[in-house]
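Final report, closing paragraph on structural work. Over the funding period we assembled a curated collection of sequence-structure pairs, and we close with a single example.
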Amino acid sequence: MDHSVSNLLTMTLDLGILLALACAFVANLGFFYKYRGANAVGKVQVRHPLRSARALYSSKWFALGMVIATASWGLHVAALAFAPMSVVQVALAAGVVFIAVMADRLFGFEVGRRQWVGLFLTAAGLVLLGVTLPAMHGAHSQFSQAAMISFEAGLFGLGGLLLMGPRMGGPVEHHGVMLGAAAGILFGVSDTAIKALTGIMGAHGLMGLMLSPWLAVAVIASIVAFYASARGLQDGEAVPVIAVTGTAANIAGIAGGIVVFGDPMAGSTLGVTLQALAFVLVVVASALMPAPVRAAGVAQSA
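Its predicted structure, as stored:
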């Protein structure tokens, strides 16, 4: 490969990672504002979606959170256009670090030792995963239709089970986290479809994008995830719900990059073992992020 082309591809990959990190920060900032706004209005009711949406947007804090979330979505789409999906999602996994820092510094939560241990494990997992990823060139937007259909259908089914969990007698104290996990998985469905659409747009233009069934999949998954996320923020504490939402979306996205788009894994036994350890570290880190308590003397309005 020509040296200048190689340098261009490396710069493109670095830009995608930078955009993903910016997306992680902006997205979690939006989540905190949405949490505040969602808890200032009535509960989201699945039987009254339009009424629930109007109530949510009547809160200036929720509306601000959605504006910020829209900006993060734009950063996410741009990152997916420049870098492989699994790389983007690994960078987004750094969002768990931003969650704790924001909770502690901006929104008046006291983050305990377990949370900081979780941050350390997350950072270690991300570094380990980044070191063991093979060299990748291009955005990796090509995909198998069969793999795409199977993967998206499986995620939809899993997300549906989590959505039904509270109605099937799941523990009340876990309702928010279950809905957050469902929202994260459905965000992963949308992200995988969006990644496919970036390749379709490049190959077939705007008409190909508009005629693609994956556009409908992305829209439907995003709408359902919106309501699940809002209700999860109402039923649960901010930090664990936001953390599990992001973690579920990241895991779904990384899996989608590997299964659907063929993003490579390590070729050696040692590399595969280290990558598995990296994933375990990120999962354990998420488990170490219970709800922190309000810091003494900090106002509710951060």
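Confidence is low (pLDDT under 50) at residues 291-302. The radius of gyration is 19 Å. We thank the funder for supporting this effort.
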